[in-house]
């Protein structure tokens, strides 16, 4: 064993490990173990010899009073034995080792051998005990070395994961506040900016492009038709360029781990509310923004002319809302369900916070908005629809949840009917918090979509449905007609206040039953294979079996 350095009072000196491999390889536990094993082997060989010698001495002592000599077989070598006579004797010669043999009286020889046998047995027991202890210490040391190695691997893995997390882009969100004149957009921009800045987000405020240009002396009512068209075209081009400038900054922030929100005062669809349909389509084509095959779905009947007065404000409000119908995250904040202007601004903040999953902060603002769901009876696609709508083919697929915490993850593919435009996104729905569910939605590219499709939940089927999006009484609705599973099931969804009644929320020309939070009507339950045939629908009512 190596000598341990210590000070005069016996405090050991801690070794400095310069070369870890050499330090670990330099342990002398193997030589110590070999030394004790060698002692054990020696004692296990010596004890039988002492026992045999003691037996002979005891035998000679028993024959001490006999007059006849002892007849025995004597081994000359491995293959040669002879008869021998041992005359009566009172002494024996004992081999002590180191070429030393001494003569002892039989009784003394017996006592000596018994003493040596007892000492040898005690020594063997001590060596076996020490060997067992040494083996335990060696095992403990090896386990400790393995634990140190495993801990190092774990620490490296944690550091690697932290690096991966640090390299994961931070989210950036784009919020467009739009509507007719004096609708509260400017105040809402200020309130939202304060909220997100207090939460540590970088906030970019995109100004209203038309206001900037009007500030240069432009008076819209004085323009001729060709001037108005050129001006609107410039507004749209400048608006898109300004938004893209802020988007590029937000993307760079995202790479640096900085959460960013872009708040737009009006969006790129707003100019369509101030133009004739044919002028809007021509403008999109000139700016290379037209989606081929989708011409019939652009803001169809928005032909208002810019003049003064409340009647125009109401008309523009409706036209702007219609321009955004079909957007996946459209939220309408009406004037009917609020008592004053500040409550309307609070509703804006609450709706944005709910959409982004910031429920802890959204609860401070006004009424709580929740997604309501209604079962629609006696409806078919061929029936006359009393309001304008946009129609989409939608496919949902749920992914495997490996966490086991109730979180639901799904991917969606949406195609507008009559076009080839495809929109892909993923949604993570977390377990309820304070009685409210939180959903985080983000757009994904085709490569991400195909990658996530490999993780689909084998216990659930794909959901295919036709979705109609429409506005009614300043509220935005989505009507889903299921193709599979549960063919013929029709559900209506809308984000509405908790305290509104079903009569207020639901269009009177739809025969509806409120099934919000009712088991069996969530997409997650409908997609379950064993529930594939649980909801039976026909031309009449749908029943949950």
UniProtKB/TrEMBL annotation:
<dbReference type="InterPro" id="IPR033469">
    <property type="entry name" value="CYTH-like_dom_sf"/>
</dbReference>
<keyword id="KW-0175">Coiled coil</keyword>
<dbReference type="InterPro" id="IPR009053">
    <property type="entry name" value="Prefoldin"/>
</dbReference>
<dbReference type="Pfam" id="PF13521">
    <property type="entry name" value="AAA_28"/>
</dbReference>
<comment type="similarity">
    <text>Belongs to the prefoldin subunit alpha family.</text>
</comment>
<feature type="coiled-coil region">
    <location>
        <begin position="117"/>
        <end position="144"/>
    </location>
</feature>
<dbReference type="GO" id="GO:0005525">
    <property type="term" value="F:GTP binding"/>
</dbReference>
<dbReference type="GO" id="GO:0005737">
    <property type="term" value="C:cytoplasm"/>
</dbReference>
<dbReference type="Pfam" id="PF02996">
    <property type="entry name" value="Prefoldin"/>
</dbReference>
<comment type="subunit">
    <text>Heterohexamer of two PFD-alpha type and four PFD-beta type subunits.</text>
</comment>
<dbReference type="InterPro" id="IPR004127">
    <property type="entry name" value="Prefoldin_subunit_alpha"/>
</dbReference>
<feature type="domain" description="NadR/Ttd14 AAA">
    <location>
        <begin position="175"/>
        <end position="329"/>
    </location>
</feature>
<dbReference type="InterPro" id="IPR038727">
    <property type="entry name" value="NadR/Ttd14_AAA_dom"/>
</dbReference>
<protein>
    <recommendedName>
        <fullName>NadR/Ttd14 AAA domain-containing protein</fullName>
    </recommendedName>
</protein>
<dbReference type="InterPro" id="IPR027417">
    <property type="entry name" value="P-loop_NTPase"/>
</dbReference>
<keyword id="KW-0143">Chaperone</keyword>
<dbReference type="GO" id="GO:0035091">
    <property type="term" value="F:phosphatidylinositol binding"/>
</dbReference>
<dbReference type="InterPro" id="IPR053227">
    <property type="entry name" value="TRPL-trafficking_regulator"/>
</dbReference>
<dbReference type="GO" id="GO:0070300">
    <property type="term" value="F:phosphatidic acid binding"/>
</dbReference>
């Amino acid at each position: 064993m190596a000598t341990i350095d210590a000070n005069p009072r016996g405090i050991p000196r801690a070794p400095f490990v310069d070369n870890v491999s050499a330090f670990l390889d330099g342990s002398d536990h193997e030589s110590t173990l070999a030394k004790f094993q060698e002692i054990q082997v020696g004692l296990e060989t010596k004890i039988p010899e002492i026992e045999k010698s003691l037996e002979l001495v005891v035998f000679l002592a028993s024959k001490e009073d006999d007059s006849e000599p002892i007849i025995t077989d004597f081994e000359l070598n491995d293959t040669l034995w002879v008869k021998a006579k041992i005359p009566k004797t009172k002494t024996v010669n004992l081999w002590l080792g180191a070429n030393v043999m001494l003569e002892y009286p039989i009784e003394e020889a017996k006592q000596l051998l018994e003493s040596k046998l007892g000492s040898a047995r005690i020594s063997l027991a001590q060596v076996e005990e020490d060997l067992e202890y040494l083996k335990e210490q060696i095992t403990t040391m090896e386990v400790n070395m393995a634990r140190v190695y495993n801990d190092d691997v774990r620490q490296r893995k944690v550091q690697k994961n932290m690096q991966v997390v640090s390299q994961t882009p931070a989210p950036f969100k784009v919020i467009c506040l739009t509507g007719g004149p004096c609708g509260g957009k400017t105040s809402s921009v200020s309130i939202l900016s304060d909220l997100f800045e207090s939460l540590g987000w970088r906030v970019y405020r995109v100004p209203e492009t038309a206001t900037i240009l009007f500030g240069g002396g432009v008076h819209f009512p004085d323009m001729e038709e060709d001037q108005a068209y050129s001006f609107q075209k410039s507004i749209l081009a400048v608006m898109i360029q300004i938004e893209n400038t802020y988007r590029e900054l937000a993307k760079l922030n995202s790479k640096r781990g900085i959460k960013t929100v872009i708040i737009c005062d009006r969006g790129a669809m707003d100019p369509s509310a101030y133009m004739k349909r044919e002028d809007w389509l021509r403008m999109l084509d000139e700016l290379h923004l037209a989606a081929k095959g989708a011409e019939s779905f652009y803001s169809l009947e928005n032909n208002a002319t810019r003049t003064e007065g409340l009647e125009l404000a109401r008309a523009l409000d409706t036209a702007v809302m219609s321009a955004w119908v079909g957007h996946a995250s459209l939220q309408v904040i009406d004037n009917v369900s609020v008592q004053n202007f500040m409550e309307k601004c609070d509703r804006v903040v609450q709706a944005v916070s709910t959409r982004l999953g910031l429920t802890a902060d959204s609860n401070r603002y006004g009424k709580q908005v929740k997604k309501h769901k209604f079962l629609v009876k006696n409806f078919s696609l061929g029936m006359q629809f009393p309001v304008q709508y946009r129609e989409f083919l939608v496919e949902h697929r749920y992914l495997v949840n490996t966490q086991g915490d109730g979180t639901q993850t799904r991917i969606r593919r949406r195609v507008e009917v009559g076009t080839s435009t495809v929109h892909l996104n993923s949604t993570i729905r977390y377990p309820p918090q304070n009685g409210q569910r939180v959903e985080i939605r983000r757009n994904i590219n085709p490569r991400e979509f195909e990658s996530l499709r490999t993780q689909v939940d084998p216990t659930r089927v794909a959901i295919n449905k036709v979705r109609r999006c429409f506005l009614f009484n300043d509220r935005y609705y989505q009507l889903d007609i299921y193709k599979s599973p549960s063919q013929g099931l029709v559900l209506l969804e809308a984000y509405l206040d908790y305290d509104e009644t079903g009569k207020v929320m639901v269009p009177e020309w739809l025969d509806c039953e409120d099934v919000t939070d009712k088991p069996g009507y969530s997409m997650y339950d409908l997609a379950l294979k064993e529930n594939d045939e649980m909801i039976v629908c026909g031309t009449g009512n749908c029943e949950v079996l």
